[in-house]
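Re: [ENG-882] Designed sequences occasionally contain unexpected residues at chain ends

Forwarding the minimal case from QA. Structure tokens:
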């Protein structure tokens, strides 16, 4: 006589499947991050063209074959790194996602940007070093431009509402100030000066 599966047993099976699926997803995401971190470090230290898939796999502690289960090429890997960096940098802009930047949101964005620099200094130091490599610029220019286009428009619209004479150049000035301070900090690791400059930037736009 066949045993009848209880509702409780059925629910347990579903829960176990869900747990296994979540565990597998977590392992896959952890492996992807490890590969991306390894590639970022090697691209920065050796250069994009000099670094091979085998180099990245070895540095990440995985086989070359397994590497291809996550990324089809080092170009794809590079684009993923650049997209991740760009998305992280601009995520805190327009906090409520309504497409309209307020003064409070702009100040929040400035604070968050400097906080990210301090929290993940090594990542941003490596990130900045690879995106300025001539070989990388041509491969990732479209990816960065697509990400930054809406970001730039939101800031330009903000300065226009604030009555700026030249909103476009106001946006360029703001981003140049932040980029310049970021690069200076990443090269010197002077946290005290970073905080002082952050306060000055916030005062400029308050």
């Amino acid at each position: 006589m066949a045993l009848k599966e209880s509702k409780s047993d059925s629910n347990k099976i579903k829960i176990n499947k869900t747990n296994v699926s979540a565990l597998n997803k977590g392992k896959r995401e952890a492996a992807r991050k490890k590969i991306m971190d390894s590639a970022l470090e090697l691209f920065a230290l050796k250069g994009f063209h000099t670094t091979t898939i085998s180099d990245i796999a070895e540095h990440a502690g995985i086989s070359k074959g397994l590497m291809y289960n996550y990324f089809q090429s080092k170009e794809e890997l590079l684009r993923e790194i650049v997209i991740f960096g760009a998305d992280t940098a601009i995520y805190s802009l327009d906090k409520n996602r309504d497409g309209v930047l307020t003064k409070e949101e702009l100040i929040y964005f400035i604070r968050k940007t400097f906080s990210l620099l301090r929290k993940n200094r090594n990542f941003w130091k490596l990130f900045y070093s690879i995106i300025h490599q001539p070989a990388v610029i041509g491969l990732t220019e479209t990816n960065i431009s697509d990400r930054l286009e809406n970001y730039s428009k939101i800031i330009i619209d903000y300065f226009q509402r604030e009555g700026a004479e030249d909103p476009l150049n106001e946006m360029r000035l703001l981003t140049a100030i932040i980029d310049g301070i970021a690069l200076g900090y990443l090269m010197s690791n002077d946290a005290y000066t970073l905080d002082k400059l952050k306060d000055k930037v916030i005062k400029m736009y308050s």
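QA comment: On inspection the terminal residues look reasonable. The chain has two domains: 9-72, 75-206. Proposing we downgrade this to a documentation issue.
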